[in-house]
């Protein structure tokens, strides 16, 4: 165990970050000289929403590489439904039993974050969305949080530990403003010293009225003002946003955009997307409910079987363009036009289809644009100018 109560890579890779009953199971089966060849599928019987975004496969590949198993999986960034197998492992049970805990942990957490980001992406429409929530989770997993959020469609992330291929985006903290004698001095310093490529998005609710600080920020070259107003001070948030928009327009700053952050929920995104130009999302993405995947035997020594509540036999999920998904036994001929979603990623311990971060993101974004499974919610907001 490291300094910060985290498990190191070697411990996870060795299968020593697991539930103790898997260790005991393996020991007893070895004494019995039993090690049946099984097929196990990962499915979710319930989902927080109608659909999820599959994520975390890259870590599973790193975990299982070198083990005597074969793995089939949906590509990362695939939209999936409840009861659809997203991953399948074939091999002798004792050879991989102890890795179930880590496999599920990788998939449940990352898919939960990606799914939350994906639903917010859909709600936001053409408004940019940024992940600001890595501070809501243990810092050791910040790269995973930001990676999953990126696959789920955010336009940038704030954490410096994220994959270098993911754009960084952040503005300024309230503490920056408070380290100056007044907001004007803070805005002037930011505009003077921040690198030229950093957008002049200025936080405009530290000491006083949002529209007053927004006008001050605009005078100091703000390209956008960020409202992070605490919920205890918000009152009617739409009215506050409309006042800020009105005053900026009335004083000749119509080009200055409004960025909303601070406890923003999916419902807030839908409610305010008609009057907000971009959103910074914290806990609604980083603290997303995990996807409650389970990993269950569906075949032993070639014979179909399943525990209570599960569906026996090896399955395939087909995407039928324009219609959605259908799950059938693997031996059933594919439906007309159906594209199989589970493909071979590990062959007897050898990774044959690695994950692509950008490919996963593009896959989900394409689903937003084309899949009948992904629905854009009705806009519950009101016109910006009444």
3D architecture notes:
This protein has 14 helices and 18 strands. The protein is an alpha/beta fold and 386 residues long. The protein folds into two domains: 9-113 and 291-357, nicotinate phosphoribosyltransferase; 171-275, TIM Barrel, CATH 3.20.20.70. The chain has a seven-stranded antiparallel sheet with strand order 13-12-1-5-3-17-18. A six-stranded parallel sheet has the order 7-6-11-10-9-8. The protein is elongated.
Q: What is the gist of this entry?
A:
With 386 residues, the protein is an alpha/beta fold.
Question: Which terms summarize this structure?
Answer:
2 domains, 19% strand, 6-stranded parallel sheet, nicotinate phosphoribosyltransferase, alpha/beta, TIM Barrel, 386 residues, disordered C terminus, 14 helices
List the helices and strands and how they pair.
Elements (H helix, E strand, L loop, with lengths): L8 H5 L6 H12 L5 E8 L7 E2 L3 H8 L5 E4 L5 E2 L6 E6 H4 L3 H25 L4 E3 L10 H10 L4 E2 L16 H5 L4 H11 L7 E3 L6 H10 L4 E4 L3 H4 L2 H14 L6 E4 L5 H7 L5 E4 L1 H4 L6 E8 L2 E2 L10 E6 L3 E6 L9 E2 L2 E5 L2 E2 L5 H14 L16
């Amino acid at each position: 165990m490291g300094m910060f109560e985290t498990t190191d890579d070697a411990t996870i890779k060795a299968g020593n970050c697991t539930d103790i009953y898997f260790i005991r199971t393996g020991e007893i089966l070895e004494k019995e000289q039993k090690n049946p060849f099984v097929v196990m599928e990962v499915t979710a019987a319930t989902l927080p929403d109608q659909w999820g975004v599959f994520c975390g496969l890259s870590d599973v590949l790193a975990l299982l590489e070198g083990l005597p198993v074969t793995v089939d999986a949906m590509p990362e960034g695939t939209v999936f439904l409840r009861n659809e197998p997203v991953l399948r492992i074939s091999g002798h049970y004792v050879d991989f039993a102890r890795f179930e805990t880590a496999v599920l942990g990788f998939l449940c957490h990352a898919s939960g974050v990606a799914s939350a980001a994906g639903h917010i992406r859909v709600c936001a429409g053409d408004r940019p969305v940024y992940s600001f929530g890595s501070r809501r989770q243990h810092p050791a997993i910040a790269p995973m949080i930001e990676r999953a959020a990126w696959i789920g469609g955010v336009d940038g992330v704030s954490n410096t530990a994220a994959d270098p291929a993911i754009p960084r985006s952040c503005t300024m903290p309230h503490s920056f403003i408070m380290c100056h004698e007044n907001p004007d001095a803070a805005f002037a310093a930011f505009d003077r010293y921040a690198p030229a490529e950093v957008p002049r998005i200025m936080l405009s609710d530290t000491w006083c009225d949002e529209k007053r600080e927004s006008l001050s920020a605009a005078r100091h070259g703000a390209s956008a003002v960020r409202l992070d107003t605490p919920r205890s001070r918000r009152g009617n948030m739409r009215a506050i946003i409309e006042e800020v928009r009105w005053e900026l327009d009335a004083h000749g700053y119509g080009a200055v955009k409004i960025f909303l952050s601070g406890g923003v929920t999916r419902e807030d995104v839908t409610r305010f997307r008609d009057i907000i130009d971009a959103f910074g999302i914290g806990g609604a993405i980083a603290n997303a409910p995990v996807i409650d995947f389970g990993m269950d035997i569906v075949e032993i020594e070639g014979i179909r079987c399943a525990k209570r509540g599960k569906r026996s036999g090896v399955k395939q999920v087909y995407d039928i363009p324009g219609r959605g998904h259908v799950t059938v036994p693997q031996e059933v001929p594919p439906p007309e036009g159906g594209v199989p979603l589970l493909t071979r990623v590990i062959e007897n311990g050898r990774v044959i289809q690695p994950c692509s971060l950008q490919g996963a993101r593009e896959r989900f974004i394409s689903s937003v644009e084309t899949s009948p499974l992904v629905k854009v919610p009705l806009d519950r907001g009101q016109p910006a100018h009444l």
